[in-house]
Amino acid sequence: MFAYYFQLGLRSLRKNPLLTALMVLAIGCGVAASMTTYSVFRATANNPIPQKSSQLYVPQIDNWGPEDAAENKGEPPQAMTYTDATNLIRDHRAKRQTVLYPVSLSVVPNDAGLLPFMENSYAWYGDAFAMFDIPFLYGSAWSVADDNAHADVAVIGRTLNDKLFHGANSVGKDINLNGHTYRITGVVDQWNPSPLFFDVVNTNAFDDTTEIFIPFTRAVDLKISTNGNNNCNKDPGQGWDNWIRSECIWLQYWAELPNTADADAYRQYLNGYAAEQQRSGRFHWAPNTRLRDVTDWLDYQKVVPQEAKVSLLVSLGFLLICLINTIGLLLAKFMRRASEIGVRRALGASRKEIYAQFLIEAAAIGLAGGLVGLLLTGLGVIGVGLVFQPDIAKLATLDVKLVLLTLVLAVVATVLAAFYPTWRAAQIQPAWQLKSN
Amino acid sequence: MQIKPILAALKRHKAGTLLIALQIALTLAIVCNALFIIHQRLDRIARPTGLDENNLMAIQNRMVGVEDKESGPLIRADLAALRQLPGVEDAISVNSYPLRGGGWSTGVHLNADDKKSKAHTTLYFSDEHTLATFGTRLVAGRNFQADEIGEADPKEVGDPAVVIISKALSDKLFPDSSALGKPIYIGDTKKPSTVIGIVERLQVPWNGNWSDTFYDNAIIEPYRLVSTFTNYMIRTKPGQLSAVMASAPAALYKTNRMRVIAPKNGIRTFAMVRESAYRADRGMAVLMGVVCAVLLGITAAGIVGLTSFWVGQRRKQIGVRRALGATQRDILSYFLTENLLIGTAGVLMGALLAIGMNLWMVTQFEMARLSVTYVLVGVVALLLLGQCAVLAPAMRASRVPPVEATRSV
Fold this sequence. Notes:
heterodimer, A: alpha+beta, 10-stranded mixed beta sheet, 18 helices, B: 5-stranded antiparallel beta sheet, elongated
């Protein structure tokens, strides 16, 4: 029966090719617009570290006071001072913790004929590698002893290892960064979380892979300033030492807290810390702290670009209009066949069979719309680069999931849209139709 | 006009009528908001930077293997090499430039004791070649002199004795007079800086929402920053841009090899800077434009389709009316009026929906309020669209011969 109704449907669709084409195109456009914008939304709203996103936390401490916080809905600053970050590290209240900031490191190749080049680099603690589940190709993270010794060690990325050492195991070899020599302790395999959750504040959340990591303690010794944002609410005074002692914020902090009890304890600790700073006279206000896990943090930092949200919404509205359009056209199409339905009903077809016939016809339209939509989505995904920054655009891809979703959405939406016209068709009184003929 | 019979007829097509009205309403709501977004984005793109953009290029340079403090002479050597290049008008080393994306910003006070700043501004640090390189016009006062230029580590910049500011900042600080010759306090300092010059226009490095309130406020401080990281801005003689794009990095590497000029974004013409800064804005405008066009097309097609169906359904009635003496014009105007009625209901709903949608977006996306003009333009556009769409089926209806009344089926 299904095959027969499907054939009937195709025949009926061929009868009004223009009307059919219009419906197919409308559904195709609506579905394609929604899917293209969804592909961007999906990429930017991605959870970059699902296995640990509820165990990694960003603490925030209000070191600027209520006046500055009021400009930001009472929220503490989004980065940390050197003072607070090093105090938190010293207290060591989480399972693992790190402070981090982007540094600008240039690789000076040993071969004098080659020019120096720059790579995305971070200074942080050795704990960070285990915290962020970073996979190693060779070697491992540097040790706690290296952190404490402010050692000249580095971990490099796979791409940089390929470039400098032609993919060979480079553990134990030296690398010259900004004219200083570091010993490589490990090579990271492909690791480029997207969004770049560990440093959203300085990167707009989407960037190329990080290829060099050095110990935070060493970077500070070398007075390497941040390659990211530095915000001061007061003049920090002159020179490096005044700057790191100032209330300027430029550091990101992450703590690994395996369960909610740990997180609650850490919250209390943060409040206690802020209260202590108040007692010591550094803060002149009550503790104002936050502790956000990865998902909350990405949400708070508005990682999904406004463009992605607005265009997804507009596209969904567009799809809705296309469906209303389809309802109207299907209604016209089905009602035009009132006499045919009358005859079928008079010959003994039940309402159920009328439903089946017309819904199958609608599904055929939906499938055709889905195929057109798939084609347009493909074009749309290629064209995403025209609307979004290259770093974001390259994340939008047409994968199997999106292909299936496009087809399913098209068929389901069309069948839903067909319910009312089909109901109307099934209500047709056979007697009336036969009489008027 | 025969509105009553039309209403009576529409009552028999409740679903179809409602669907068309709803479609028009939703289309209006989306088109209004999309047009509004397009307008906002285009407005932003059209903001002038104040620079001689056609002849400008930027190089992002990082010295390697030296400390910040040692880079002063290296930068001076670079500048000397760049300024000597054939085809180069002038060149500077500067911390940032309009549309670059990152830079310095701070508040400006009129008195040392003021708690709240009078205006927010960006800070550009460079030397007496700045105005000639940017190509921005001095509207009052004078340029820096060579002996007023200092060199300083970015973390040790003091308060300058003299500054040049943009006209927009001058107007903001002193609405009734000019800032020329007056002291201003940059940041939370106690030491004033005297305004010695005012330039016509100079944009901030950012182009996002957050800098919208001060996008034309800029201060140029007479410091060459001594840092391993710097931006060289080069203004070429007309027509020499592509030649200098090639010769400038070569000249820099010849002066000193220990540097990094990133292959990606390291050397850019100002046109490239502008393109990259406004890509999202332009893309959004294009996307909204395409959505509007397709949407209007689909709505028009929907009206054509449904009206054609109604015409087909009513051939017999039309024939009867024609046989009873209705002219072709009467039939035509019947369908046009019918569409106008549905359209009016649709746009009324749509106008409310458009405003509601905008109000919601204002709370969600820091968007501005929709102006009523857009809604009015949208209303007229959709009514016209409806009339055009209905024209072809209505013409076909008007050509139904009276003899149709006598035929069955």
